């Protein structure tokens, strides 16, 4: 049995009358890189802050490394790394000062050499003040600060937002490097689904505060399917196929978004309902995510109309 | 001046990477991170991309029997992908018999003579060929054009193998 490092139970947060996180029941096993995805405003940042005990939940609870988020002791906090959205660091400190400051929170396991090597690799002068760094450089300092204490659980809130491809890749490398060490776990939120696919072996999807998926990335990739069926005349009145999420009709075509059914089942349904031909489209993770979180009556923003 | 030396330096580091053959020595661990190309926006899962590219390298003889694939963690770090994805790619290759894993020592390219081929495998192959022939004929190509095309493509694989045998 792998240990659960992060667990929430009915975790709920209202801001006034706005529901931000809705009864989140989540379990993240040790040793994975978990991509945490959802649209803007889906509740990712709120969920992360609740998990870290930085916000008080309206209802429910969460536990990190077996300890209630509302009562994380300094000893537990030392085993957890957190990278805030936008890499907010004290602007008036130099890199060296910030290292000293951060190190004091992780007295037992701070790796001086690792931090120094990373700063040297990034070619950053240690005396430079944070306020004089570019966004990318500040993110690099933030990455080094996150990895140097060798955290058992690293939580990063959209760490690659607004970063160039090379620095984004450095974050991905950092996650892979950390996960190779025994018993390390990473949870990171991102809108770049290509990055999520590259490094994650687990995916958590939330939409409007509600948990929509928490499974292995491979399961998600295999489960969400798009099928196009063509019919000689009209499309069948009733679409009673298992796992139907969305159904779009045109004159003699059906476009179905399905969750879960095997290809053979789709083929059988197509034959039974008199489809002339059908095609299972290979979607990438981004398309799968868009379809999966699309509202039921979703239409394209702009549509080409024949005149 | 500084600029020009930097330029030269970067070119000389790029060239050997393009020279795939130079990086692979028979019976040694292949340095695959340099030529496997991951496309993370693709419809094809990453483990399939890795497995397919290794399959192709084996077919072309760039990897030969007895060659050792890099350790899972090493390839994961080189490609910047999850180690479980590499492990999945390796087990996919193992299922098809292209590689065998020996506990404790690693994953090795298997001997082609010992690979099993059953009727079902041949069936899949003929189906795919039928598909190619159909498309070719519908494009208006003649039978002999198709044969020439096939020969040309095949040469890309077979010549590479022969070249490697000569170098060893």
Parts with pLDDT < 50 across at least 5 consecutive residues of chain B: 1-27
Give the overall average pLDDT of chain A.
92
**Order of strands side by side in the largest beta sheet of chain B?**
1-2
Estimate the global geometry of chain A from the Cα principal axes.
Answer: elongated
- State the shape of chain B: globular
Give short descriptive properties of this protein.
heterodimer; A: alpha/beta; 6-stranded mixed beta sheet; 4-stranded antiparallel beta sheet; elongated; B: 168 residues; two-stranded antiparallel sheet; disordered N terminus
Describe what you observe in this structure:
The complex is a heterodimer of chains A (307) and B (168). Chain A contains 10 helices and 14 strands. Chain A is an alpha/beta fold. With 168 residues, chain B is mostly helical. Helices cover 58% and strands 5% of the residues of chain B. Chain B has helices at 2-18, 46-59, 72-79, 83-95, 119-138, 143-167, and strands at 99-102, 106-109. In chain B, strands 1-2 form a two-stranded antiparallel sheet. In chain B, helix 2 crosses helix 4 (83-95). Mean pLDDT of chain B is 79; it is low at 1-27. The chains are: A alpha/beta (307), B mainly alpha (168). At the A-B interface, helix 6, helix 7 and helix 8 of A face helix 3 and helix 4 of B.
Q: What can be said about this structure in brief?
A:
The complex is a heterodimer of chains A (307) and B (168). By secondary structure, chain A is an alpha/beta fold.
Write the layout of secondary structure elements.
The complex is a heterodimer of chains A (307) and B (168).
Chain A: E1 4-15, E2 18-29, E3 33-37, H1 44-51, E4 59-64, E5 67-68, H2 74-77, E6 80-83, H3 95-103, H4 112-121, H5 135-147, E7 153-156, H6 165-179, E8 185-189, H7 193-199, E9 202-207, E10 210-216, H8 217-223, E11 224-231, E12 244-249, E13 253-259, H9 263-272, E14 275-281, H10 285-292
Parallel strand pairs in A: 3-8, 3-9, 6-7, 7-8
Antiparallel strand pairs in A: 1-2, 1-4, 4-5, 9-10, 11-13, 11-14, 12-13
Helix pairs in contact in A: 4-5, 5-6
Chain B: H1 2-18, H2 46-59, H3 72-79, H4 83-95, E1 99-102, E2 106-109, H5 119-138, H6 143-167
Helix pairs in contact in B: 2-4, 3-4
